[in-house]
Amino acid sequence: MKKQLAILGSTGSIGTQTLDVVAEHPDLFEVYVLVANNQVDALIEQARRFMPDTVIIANKAHYPKLQAGLADLPIKVYTGDDAIAQIVTASPIDIVVTAMVGYAGLLPTIRAIEARKTIALANKETLVVAGDLIKRLALEYHAPIIPVDSEHSAIFQCLVGEYSNPIEKIILTASGGPFRNFTAEQMKSVTKNDALKHPKWHMGNKITIDSATMMNKGFEMIEAKWLFDVSPEQIEIAVHPQSIVHSMVQFEDGTVKAQLGLQDMRMPIRYALSFPDRMKCQTRKMTIDDYAQLTFERPDMERFPLLKYAFDAIHTGGTMPCILNAANEIAVDAFLHDRISYPQIAETIAETMNRIKVTASPAYEDYVNTNEEARRYAEQYIASLPTVC
Length: 389
Hints:
Elements: E1 3-8, H1 13-24, E2 29-36, H2 40-50, E3 54-57, H3 63-69, E4 76-79, H4 81-87, E5 95-98, H5 106-114, E6 118-121, H6 125-141, E7 145-147, H7 150-159, E8 167-174, H8 184-187, H9 192-195, H10 205-213, H11 215-228, E9 235-239, E10 245-251, E11 256-260, H12 266-274, H13 305-316, H14 320-336, H15 343-355, H16 364-384
Parallel strand pairs: 1-2, 1-5, 2-3, 3-4, 5-6, 6-7, 8-9
Antiparallel strand pairs: 8-10, 10-11
Helix pairs in contact: 2-3, 4-5, 5-6, 6-11, 6-14, 10-14, 11-13, 13-14, 13-15, 14-15, 14-16, 15-16
């Protein structure tokens, strides 16, 4: 029987590549729900091709266009955050692919877990913001969470067959982004276009900026803590510019297992959808030329302070990672709209982390309130900064 998929964030990078995998294996998968935020034309095109039961556009302003574009088809059309949170509980759905960007992915993930769905997790902010809550709910409702991020998929694959062997250390690899070899002085004047030129991966704008600042790796460290039940002290970041080794796990006997692969997100997507099996693919496989030279180096937290802020946030605990994420989302959006400079991303995040009160043992409502408060403060702080020329 075909697995029924709900793809949240279907028009983004992970969403479109998930649909590539569905198209490769129509005998294994069927799309039940497609969800997008703003890209209504792309959503209409996807719906007409994959014929899901339901499509949802988060931005209500695009609802009339979506309705009109699918009026001749027997597809249900809805809009808004409430509709997204409700649809993931639909009984035919087997796997919910959470590929929405940012905090918006939290509530649908919670609702899907409560409905005991398998979660193919590509929205790292869900665990960054509320990792403790998500972990408790997943255990309570027996909802499997299978990581889609290439690094966490690599760790997950390294742990298959090792369930009785304690993890000594996780080595989380990072490409280093476009500014790996920049001096601190050079980084003061980098532009949006500079930051969007990732040397290895083709991703959405927000995650590409997070990669440039290395906040992405900080988020992945927090995510790894919750996914694999380790302390931050057990997670080491290794800059690996070739992006062939996607991460490693060290065990108590000194053995290190690594997962290698090309820079193709369809590989971890396939694994998440087919686990515990593996599927054939027609894409290029690695040759010795791809891994003939592999290098690793330690990250410089002076030049990449956001990585340090992530470690600080998870050590503080409570709602501090939620504050970190909220401030980062506001700051990155401002940078992408030319409202602040690159160094002011870190400045905005540091100021917000220093100002917003932390709740030590938060419930869901505390995360919601903290997120809103941190966003308001970050916006106010940015408004107080000198205009970027």
